[in-house]
Amino acid sequence: MPDDAPALGLAARPARSRARLSRSAPFVVAGLAAVALWVAPAVLDTFAVNVLTRSMIYAVLAVTVDLLWGFAGVLTFGQAAFFGVGAYATAMALTYLGATPEWMAVALALSVAAPMALGLAVGWLSFYHRSTALYASVISLVTPIVVTQLIYSGGEWTGSSSGLVGFDVLPLELEGFFRLAALVLVAVTLAAWVFVRSDAERALVAVRDNDARCAYLGLSPKRLQIALTTVLAGVAGLAGFVFANASSVVAPENAGFLFGTELVIWVALGGRGTLLGPVLGTIAIDYLAANLSGDLPFLWQLLLGTAFVAVIILLPGGLAELVRRVWARLPFGRRQAVAPRLVASSPRPNAAVSGAPLLKIENLAKSYGSLTVLENIDIEIRAGELVSLVGPNGAGKTTLMRCLSDGTEPFSGAVSIGGASTAGLTPNRIVALGVGRKFQVASVFESLTVADCLLLARAPHDRLSPIGRAETLSLPQAALDVLRMTGLDRLLAEPTRLLSHGQKQALELAMVVALEPRLILLDEPTAGLTKAERTTIGAVLRTLTGDGVAAVLVEHDLDFVRQISSRIVVLHQGRLALDGTVDEVVNSELVRTIYSGGAHG
Ligand SMILES: Nc1ncnc2c1ncn2[C@@H]1O[C@H](COP(=O)(O)OP(=O)(O)OP(=O)(O)O)[C@@H](O)[C@H]1O
Fold first, then answer.
1. From the CB of 397, is ligand 1 less than 6 Å away?
2. DSSP per residue over 463-516, as a string?
3. Mind listing the pLDDT tens digit for each residue in 423-479?
């Protein structure tokens, strides 16, 4: 249980009550929108009701595209395919089974389940194998093409190029379908709005920024991305269900690549990453299109294309960016970022320290093609030891750290942590064994704040809420010490991209310490730091090892190594040249020769 004292965060009471007020904003806006849309059919003409019903269904799709592209950073053209599958599942069920309440329920279930199954397959293909965001976008391009071809090949089952028409639908009037579309849009947008303001959403942004770092914090980027793709495919399918009922017609174009591209354009024009921008943008553009495209079919496309190019160049954040800029100039529009209050987490009981080594490396060898980088490496490290790994440039130190923290890295020999083999384990599963790794180049999430980065580092211990933001951030005492000693505790609400090099290094160290690892791997943690910062890091490492944590430190600063190490391992040309106490290594003739460039393997 977190201890409520000492509270180190900013005591920003007015800002906090404003934050609480802003938390209720989505519900107030959704309530007002629902009431306005409920009464709207009474004042709109039939044409407007008809068109806006379709526009609102498309806006649901825009929300899903925005979550994937604007927040998770995956540009997708595939939402049209999931929408089409949902619409076709509904149309086929209603055509061939009938529209009784029971079959309607079956149609609804199919319209969500079928796109989710396809979404799971697409997500797996896109993200499972260390693929890039570009690869995912290409698959999202191919999906609507494949789905459309399947519809064309479906013969009379799918109606081929004519689609399916005239099936029985929900017993609603035009106004009823308008209200149903409005209800789904308000519910989906509200759920998305609550999610994007939650702690769990920070994980999506972190994956977008730096998925490798996420894996080393124990998160599974690919699982997150596959889950998001699957859920949003289901939401697109639900929109397809409403569309099929409201229009009583489905056609291959509804699942097509062109429609998928239009969705992306609408989201870009509305302002990706803003949620309300894409919703309002989609409704406005689709409504305008319905009004203008009949009279000006070619000119309309030209206008839309020109607007797209102009917005991309002049307003990369879309029309929502314009609104945001104006809003920010208003006195009440300036938002003060609020950081959670820091509290000390209660110390976790240390696993009984046995005499057995915590880290055991046996006969490890690693090659890149014909280049042998590591050979015959045998090292054992016990709890509480701080072992420095030194050696000239290119000796293989970073490669060894990589082999220790990623069991999928191809190498021969064996590595075990706490008796468990790491063979085949992905970095996030090695984190679960109690390993924390700090990279050579400070690796933090540039779109997030200091507090967000620390929050993600606590994800293996404290679940990230998908519906809200935590008001407190509980960290182990050692992580609090790093923050306090480096002044980061006063910069919790600061975006990390504004931090200095030394502050980023300290933040990454605090993140690794926040994982509460048993074994900590540090690659040049003092590179580019001032003397005072180096002293701080040395003090933190001494405290950690005093508490029974084992540490492996790659370091070029030999004075620093001498001061804090309990043992030094010297690597030279991929081989273990010496493994001894500080005195043994410092006084070794061999080490002097290696560093003067005189020893050759
Ligand atoms: N991905 C790679 N492909 C091919 N060779 C690589 C790769 N990564 C590292 N190497 C080579 O492996 C050798 C060891 O590199 P490594 O980065 O592990 O050394 P290091 O001791 O950490 O060096 P430094 O102190 O400069 O960081 C070098 O010769 C390097 O060129």
1. yes
2. PPPSS---SEEEE-HHHHHHHHHHTGGG-TTSBGGGS-HHHHHHHHHHHHHHT-
3. 999 999 999 999 999 998 888 999 999 999 999 999 888 888 998 888 899 999 989
Q: Show the tokens assigned to 217.
A: 């914090």
* 359-443+519-595: CATH topology: Rossmann fold (3.40.50)
The finding on whether 368 has its CB within 6 A of some atom of ligand 1 is yes
Q: Is the pTM of this model over 0.90?
A: no
* All residues at 6 or more sequence positions from 354 whose CB lies less than 8 Å from its CB, including other chains: none
Architecture of domain 13-333: Orthogonal Bundle (1.10)
Cα–Cα distance measured from residue 64 to residue 282, given in angstroms and rounded to the nearest whole number: 12
Tokens of 392: 């000239």
User: Atom 29 (ligand 1): residue with closest C-alpha?
Assistant: 394
Query: How are beta strands 386-390 and 371-381 bridged, if at all?
Result: unpaired
Residue extents of the structural domains in the chain:
13-333, 359-443+519-595
DSSP 354-417: -SS-SEEEEEEEEEETTEEEEEEEEEEE-TT-EEEEE-STTSSHHHHHHHHH-TTS--EEEEEE
Q: Is 399 in the pocket of ligand 1 (CB under 6 A)?
A: yes
Token pair recorded at residue 458: 């606590």
Tokens of 290: 């319905």
Write out pLDDT tens, residues 572-594.
999 999 999 988 888 888 878 87
Q: How far is the CA of 566 from the centre of ligand 1 (A)?
A: 26
- What residues does 367 pair with on adjacent strands? 372
CA of 122 relative to ligand 1 center, distance in Å: 36
Pocket test for ligand 1, best of 364, 371, 400, 411 (most atoms within 8 A of CB): 371
